[in-house]
Amino acid sequence: MEFIAEPDRQSIVIRCFFDAPRHLVFKACTEPDLLARWWGSSGFENSVDRMDVRPGGTYRYVSRDGHGTEFAIGGVYHDVAAPERIVQTFQFEGMPGQVQLETITFEEAEDGTRYEAVCIFQSVKQRDDAVLYGMEEETRGSMDRLAQVVASLR
Questions:
Q1: What's the CA gap between 16 and 13, in Å, rounded?
Q2: How many whole angstroms separate alpha carbon 28 and alpha carbon 38?
Q3: Cis omega (within 30 of 0) for bond into 83
């Protein structure tokens, strides 16, 4: 996985390669039961509260720690072109007003799928804070689990 956070930019780019056809990678990102298996923090109970994958549809994912404390994120799907692209907003409920715009593309490759997520933050400071608070480590864990889910679909 590549995690690119260039200095003085408002964006983070995440690139991965999955040894599977893109329709399976897209499926793992758009079906609630599959997404709940890979998304979120390791060691937390992760669930999908709602997921209406269509332009104008909304989503809400919830992570619960061992004490029952919930951490939720949600957003709106702005564009969905199966199995090529998802454009959505992304916001932690505990940080109102700090909304990211995320574009995920799924590109067919000779032996699998190239996945790229471009996350645009409202400011360089917000982006830097996300990096400081462990976004790269969390993303690596999620992408590793996504690879396992995709492999189970083959």
A1: 10
A2: 9
A3: yes
CA distance 51 to 94: 19
**Bridge-partner residues for 61, per DSSP?**
48, 73
DSSP string, the chain: -EEE--TT-SEEEEEEEESS-HHHHHHHHH-HHHHHHHSS-TTSEEEEEEE--STT-EEEEEEE-TT--EEEEEEEEEEEETTTEEEEEEEETTSTT--EEEEEEEEEETTEEEEEEEEE-SSHHHHHHHHHTTHHHHHHHHHHHHHHHHHHH-
- The C-alpha atoms of residue 121 and residue 72 are separated, in whole angstroms, by 18
pLDDT in tens, 117-133: 999 999 999 999 999 99
* Threshold 0.90, pTM exceeds: yes
Residue 69's φ and ψ, nearest 5 degrees, are: -70, 130
